[in-house]
Amino acid sequence: MQLDKIVNFHKTVGDKTRIRIISLLRSGPLHGQAIAGKLGLKAPTISHHLKKLKDIDVVYQRRDKNTIYYYLNESKLERLTHAIIEVGGNAMNEQYAVSQEEKAKIIQNFTDQTGRFKRLPAQRKKKLILLEHILRGLEHGKSYEEKEINEYIQTYYEDYATVRREFVMAHFMYRDNGIYELNPVEMWPV
Amino acid sequence: MQLDKIVNFHKTVGDKTRIRIISLLRSGPLHGQAIAGKLGLKAPTISHHLKKLKDIDVVYQRRDKNTIYYYLNESKLERLTHAIIEVGGNAMNEQYAVSQEEKAKIIQNFTDQTGRFKRLPAQRKKKLILLEHILRGLEHGKSYEEKEINEYIQTYYEDYATVRREFVMAHFMYRDNGIYELNPVEMWPV
DNA sequence: TATCTAATTAGATTATAATCTAATTAGATA
DNA sequence: TATCTAATTAGATTATAATCTAATTAGATA
Question: pTM here?
Answer without folding.
Answer: 0.60
